[in-house]
Amino acid sequence: MEVFVAKSSAIAEGQRVLIDHKGQKIGVLRVNGALHAFLNLCPHQGGPACEGMLIHKIEEVIDEDKRYLGMRFHDRDVHMVCPWHGWEFNVETGASAADGKHKLKRYKTIEKEGDVYVVV
Amino acid sequence: MFYRSSTSAFDMSVESFNSAEHLENARKQADERGLDKVLVVDIDAHHYETDNFKEILELIEDPVLRQSATNMFAYKGPGALLIDQPGYQDGAGRITRYMERKHEKFPADGTPREVAQTLRWMDAMSVDYACIFPTPMLFMGLHPQVEVEVGLSRAYNRWLVEKVLPANKRLRSMLYLPFNDPEATYQMVKEFGGKPGVIGFMVVSTRYKPVYDNAYMKTYALLEEMGLPLSFHASYNWNDQLISLTNRFITAHALGFTLFNAVHCANWVINGLPERFPKLKTIWIESGLAWVPWLMQRLDNDYCMRTSEAPALKRLPSDYMREMYYTSQPMEMVNNRKALEVTFEMINAETQLLYSSDYPHWDMDLPSTIWDLDFLSEQAKRNILGLNAKRLFNLDTSDRF
Ligand code: FES
Fold it and tell me: At residue B163, what are phi and psi to the nearest 5 degrees?
């Protein structure tokens, strides 16, 4: 079943829309040009994972002699952060950045004729 | 509120904040589990005394300290008297409520903002009663001027007892003890021990005073006589010689919050204080639970070989520790249920464990963390969530149940 979310123009890069579908909230967001949709329910303690910060994954900079030189933002991988405790999820897979096992429930999105839909 | 991200496309602006909306999913959890019908007592919750700091500073009794604190506050804010730590409690903006809660709005119905905000999150989480503690003051045990800890804690306790606790029966506190001054500690218990809403006293364990010092014995005796528990609330000191070897907040937090309580607890047991004060109840707060079996096993093993160094003990160290009380948060529950189950068995969780949320701090635990544990009986869940606290503090819960 396709559920209308918003006009495409309402979900620009880095923006999100939350819809209520039969009592469940679904967050739809656009990152690196692609749409992603998740149930707004964190596998940790049930927090509103889709309402938190979007931020690039942080990685360490290690030189060829294995020396630590600092940290930097990854140039592509983006995390969505649950605002309750800070669990981070890869927006392309919905998997927890910590162990990859805990996952957000994902939904397929469809963009046609300037509208965005989520398939539930 | 504006949050900077890694790139401007991800920068976030939040117009308004409401604790009930932030915790909407917690409310759903409580409804699904029927928690409104279960007594939930939260033994470790926090507020930010700095939200009312001006008012608190006015209650400082020493005129010289009050005058200087008032002027310092005017240009420096709460840092006027508090001692701060480097730290990233808000996860660099990831835990959004740190910034947002300051701007939360409430109807002007005469309820102090402090109380309205606390009740709002309590209702969302189905918490019936909460024992509230300060937040920035949790570092005051590190203040180089003992008299500043004494002056500020007396002012804070007066403010809490006169302005906050009387506003709603669901709010209680174990009052802050200025433990670096044993005489002031004793006076605090004597003066505030019987006040309404005061259910015990709390020592922030992050300090460098040994609990076995003879100077504290009269305070322990008084607490025992009054039937009031003594709790040790953890925090961290990143400047501690050992902890300063850590270079990330995650490490300073994971170790710091545990080690100070472990040291005081080990001293408490090995010096035989449970034998000297058999009726004094002790509570260890916010160190999680995994440290307890570790310390029990270490002490028991050594005690059997070095019994003469702890001649006051009549039983194994772990036997005393099993009679102490522990708060649940931050409960180690990510990926090893079996270890958690063994921990619950080793600490007699069914009678000794007290649910705590630590809300609004970043590592808070909801009541569902206890309710959803499949290895507990329903009675055990009810005990941990509220009945153990009711019994320990002799709480009158008739206004809720
Ligand atoms: S509930 Fe999402 S991080 Fe804890």
Answer: -105, -35
